[in-house]
Amino acid sequence: MATVAYGPNLTRTHAEITSDVVATLSAPSKGYLAALFGAVGLFLIGLITFIILLKDGLGHAGYNPPIMWSVYITNFVFWVGIGHAGTLISAILYLFRSPWRTAVYRATEAMTVFAVMTAGLFPIIHIGRQWVFYWLLPYPNARYIWPNFKSPLMWDVFAVGTYLTVSTCFLVFGLIPDVAAVRDRATGWRRALYAQVAMGWTGSDNQWRHFSRAYLYLAALLTPLVLSVHSVVSWDFAMSLVPAWHGTIFAPYFVGGAIYSGLGMVMTLLIPLRKVLKVEHLINDYHFDNLAKLTLLTGCIMFYSYSMEYFVAWYSGNTFEQTTFFRRAFGPYWWAGWTMIICNALMSQLLWFKKIRTNLTSLFVISIFINIGMWFERFVIIVSSLSNEFIPWAWDGLNPTWADWGILLGSFGWFFMYFLLFARTFPIVAIQEIKEMIPMPRLRSGGGHH
Amino acid sequence: MGLPLPRRREVPGVLASFEHIDAACDAIRALRKEGRRNLTVYTSHPSHEVEAAVGHTWSPIRLFTLIGGLTGCTAGFAMTLWMSRDWPLVVGGKSVNTVVPYVAIAFELTVLIAGLLTFFGMALLTFPRAVRKVGFDPRFTDDRIGIFVPAQAGETDRLGAFFRDAGAVEVRNA
Lengths: 450, 174
Prior knowledge:
The complex is a heterodimer. By secondary structure, chain A is mainly α.
């Protein structure tokens, strides 16, 4: 039975599914409003910090040679990574016809778009002179010299730009039939808004015919895209000669880590959100168990990648490589290095136990550790590696300032603010895909087309 | 000034609403057997059973994706190779034109243009029909299956009786 494939506890009719999801869009609860105000507050901290940086320059941030990529690039890689789990669940698992993704994919896809939007801010903040950001685009400068397309930074502009555009298309595209379903039950300004977003959708056979194919092709395009985006981000590092960066393992290592960090964020978002929006019966233990299994798989990839990094550093016989990794574990940034290993490689191993996978409190705690661990992974790769590259007299540390932390907090506020607004304005659970899994009533007994 | 959208053309006909998918599919097949090809069938989610009954062939949306992909790939290589030659500048001892690094740009543009054209293709293929005002009921996006048949005044009674016999829970002239 389709209800079993969706989850063991779902016995709802099509009309009840619509009602359940429409109910999430009714008057907000106190918990929701508190979360939204908190997010807006954090965003304002970031905004004020940014305005000061814009006025005075990057001198306020803790840039210190040789660490000229510091907290802002750490944030960039962290947020791009967060998006990856969303695309894995919405596009890759769609191609695999994985039934459990249905309930959670809309939330994760929205998370992807907002995470990549957040990430996109950081290269612009990092360049310092934001008003000339268009120099990144392929147009000739004052001397008619074009951008250098052999630089991985240019590949990044194209990769992240494409990822944001196609992910947004995918999110909006999947939303159209659900928004139409909500439109036909809504009143007032919401009905007018949904009528515009639904773009005349009626659910006719002709619309579904094109929609199903287009959705499949978008999913097929996003699958290699998501693997390419974090590979390209990893090449920002791997194409250089900095010890601990110049490794062929970087692309799969970064993609695995990105999905791992994104799964952590999915759980951080969904565990409280299902309660606030009262959709516990739609997003239940079955889905979190599967999310936790994926987290375990990617956590094992992290375990393997960290082990391989240390092994290759030792096996290479390269003094610079060996020193960098020795100092990663026992140098001035030992605390960051061990935070990354404990939170990512070790904490995820707890998910071997089903009792932990189906206990939402423990999953929530683990997901917070994953978020912290993955931010520190980016911090360690960037700051710890740059702090001791090559000549020892040039070694130095980083002293993050209020400007670094202000922008970091602001990025969380910016991300949560958009996510929370989305969750209350649009269907956060995919109505039509859940309906697809519930058999329609029949006059005669017996199977359907399949 | 408003957008120059075409005026919605009203199409008269009969609109039937079904609760049961097998009854709806039987009705669709019977109507098609009569030679009616201009049916509009509404469902709240995609259904292979309905698709098979309506007898759709392949969707041309794939051509949009293919053309977009090929255009993006060609544009990616053409842009990078041409821009490198337009002002030849040796950077880092690498030759001016090297195809391998440009694969990244060509790949991203392949996906970008293919994705955008798929999206716009969908709008293009469904828009002309959306401006045709045919019978619709809000319950079709909820839990009912709808069938709209364009019909002249003389045949509406016969079609109404046909739908009621087929198991429709509601029939009206639209």
